[in-house]
Amino acid sequence: MTPRASRRLAIAVLTAVLIAAAPPLVRADVAPPGDTRDRLTFDELMTGAPNRDGPVHNDYFMPIGHADPAHHAFEGVLGFIGAPFFVGQGRFPSFQVSFVTTDGYLVPVEHDIVQPLSGGWDLILSPGRVWSEPGDNGWSRASFPFVLTGRTWNDSHNGLATFLYNDTDVSDATFQIVQEAASWSRFDAWSQLQLLYQPGPVDGKADLVATFNDMLAQRIPTAPLDTLSADSHLIDGMERGLGHITVTGLLDDGVLYRTPCYTRYGDYPYCDDMRHGVYAVTMSAGAALSLLWLAERYGPEVFDAKIADNVDVTADHDGWNNVTFRDAIDMATGIGEMAPNQTSAIDDIYADGERFIYRFANALGVETKLDVAFEDGRYEWGPGEVVRYNDLHTFTLAVAMDAYLKDREGPDAHLWEMVSEEVLRPIGVAVAPMMHTREADRSRGIPIMGWGFFPTLDDLAKIAQLYQDRGAHNGRQLLYADEIDVLLDGSGSDLTIPWRTAYGTYRYDFSFWYMPYRGQASCGVAIPEMIGIGGNIVTLMPNGMTGIRLADADDDSDAMWSGENMAALADNVRSFCE
Q1: Which residues on adjacent β-strands are paired with residue 504?
Q2: pLDDT tens-digit series, residues 361-399
Q3: CA separation for the pair 6, 573 (Å, rounded)
Q4: pLDDT tens readout for residues 5-29
Q5: What is the C-alpha radius of gyration for the chain, rounded to an integer number of angstroms?
Q6: Helix, strand or coil for residue 432?
Q7: Which residues lie below 8 Å from residue 23, measured CB to CB, with a gap of 6+?
Q8: DSSP string of 296-354?
Q9: Torsion sign, CA atoms 256, 565, 464, 353
Q10: Which of 80-84, 245-249, 311-315, 352-356 has the lowest mean pLDDT?
Q11: 500 sits in which H/E element
Q12: How confident is the model at residue 2, as a pLDDT?
């Protein structure tokens, strides 16, 4: 794939024009701490004098030297007073959220996307740690990971925060952001924030702690990637050819072999809690998952349900009349006008949504987003015939699926909430932050589904394993198995796309890309992949293994779309041809 084609694809999937790219950043040459804390000290956190020198090594946000359990419990509301970034774009948002401590962990009550009181970012908080150090004058110390998220796109900016506390008071908090999934907006940011602490009982604490403990118990065991029994050259190859990789892993027999989570200031100490904006991976891990759940719940006839029977279509043509849910998940709606040649080049077919994507992304509510989606014309062919990649059609499917569900379960039913409750939580994905429309009446919106999911590596591994297990978990069938059989063996759609490798031509089916590959024993396979901009790939290997790569690659990186390195490693561990 040419650099020009890669850039065209990135633009079409994301946007024609975003903000000007920040200067390229490189990993900083900062020293990790020694045995004695000399940064983020008691005095620094208590005096309100922020560090103006730049980010420090991430290990400074964790215990240093001799550390003991925290002296104090923490339970109550913590308010964060927003402050400008010293470097970067904007300011840290103002918000408040309750935390509790349990067994050395600091657990936020809110794990979903928080829409702050002020500031240009949303954020997601994850569990952190509490401890004590001799130099903290009897106070306890806490840190936690967080991610700032864009309100328009699926960009993620991962950071760390730390503060001191006792039974009644808190210090300032220091934070830094040194990693992202947003190649057009890379920046380091750091500052010090004033905190307000209101100690007191937190409602539902027992349930919160129980849910947190269940999450820990269900976490997939991890091991270093280089301990995998495989050719070391192939292990190294997992990161070859692509810059800005955050983490790579291979799930095999219940163990997730992974690299550290890289940042510009040392490895991320909360790698298993790091959340990633995965862009179009959302289609396979969200939209397809939801449709397969509906099919298991109501029967496979849901695949043939029509968009126009579930959504008020306002297009000035009849092209939507016969578009089914399956056509939409296949990106074969027959709707569009920018690439009218059925054999268009890769550059053209991904430009199909470029005319509308920026206005769609900035439209807030479901109706205004649908208005943009229905402005598009129709092709001379009908649905189900030709792939034309378009995020707007996945969103239209999400609206239709939500309406289909409400028609059967009542007006209070919500698609992503029910999928989270009935599919994701049973497999151990306790929290599934997903971007939704923003409605004027502040009601629950519709999941975007073309992008918008912020999973952890562990979340993606569990979702992939559910697919590998034909939609069953602990003896319960959660997803429609017959369709997953077709999905896994690659025998479904013959919808090809003009994207070739040395092994053949890619196909697209049910939101999955099918990578042609030839195993080491010369068998030919079609490997289903979830693919998103930046180099985010989840690859469902034919030997039952799953490869995952999360990255922030530049638009012109050819290797961004290639899962061949992961396939080569998996095939070396256990042959695809057996």
Answers
A1: 501
A2: 999 999 999 999 999 999 999 999 999 989 999 999 999
A3: 30
A4: 333 333 333 322 222 334 456 667 7
A5: 24
A6: coil
A7: none
A8: HHH-GGGGG-BGGGTS----SSSTTTT-BHHHHHTT---B-SS--STT--HHHHTTTTH
A9: positive
A10: 352-356
A11: strand 496-501
A12: 31
Distance CA 458, CA 313 (A): 38
To the nearest whole number, what is the mean pLDDT of the chain? 90
For residue 171, report the phi and psi dihedrals to the nearest 5 degrees: -85, -175
Q: How many helices (H) and strands (E) does the chain have?
A: 15, 22
Task: Look up tokens 């298993």; give the residue.
Answer: 272
- Rounded-to-integer distance, Cα 120 and Cα 118, Å: 7
- Any residues with CB less than 8 A from the CB of 294 and at least 6 apart, and which? 302, 401, 404, 405
pLDDT of residue 125: 97
- Angle of helix 366-373 relative to helix 354-362, nearest 10 degrees, comes to 170
Q: How far apart are CA 533 and CA 425, in angstroms?
A: 27
State the Cα–Cα distance between residues 351 and 338, nearest whole angstrom: 7
**149-175: burial string, b at 16+ Cβ within 10 Å, e else:** bbeebbbbbbbbbbbbbbeeebbbbbb
- Give me the count of residues in the chain: 578
- Tell me how far apart the terminal alpha carbons of the chain are, to the nearest angstrom: 31
Question: CA angle, corner 478, sides to 476 and 483, nearest 5?
Answer: 120
Dihedrals φ, ψ of 472, to 5°?
-105, 150
**88-136: per-residue pLDDT in tens?**
567 888 999 999 999 999 999 998 999 887 667 999 999 999 999 999 9
pLDDT on residue 21: 34
Structure tokens at 72: 């104090």
CA distance 12 to 358: 10
HSE toward the beta carbon, residue 521, CA cutoff 13 A: 8
Q: Would you call 493 helix, strand, or coil by DSSP? A: coil
CA 133 to chain centroid, in Å, comes to: 35
Instruction: Tell how strand 255-258 and strand 472-473 pair up.
Output: unpaired
Rounded mean pLDDT of 518-530? 92
User: Does residue 555 surpass a pLDDT of 80?
Assistant: no
DSSP secondary structure, 149-206, as one string: E-SSS--EEEEEEEEEE-SS-EEEEEEEEEEEE-TTS---EEEEEEEEEEE---TTHH
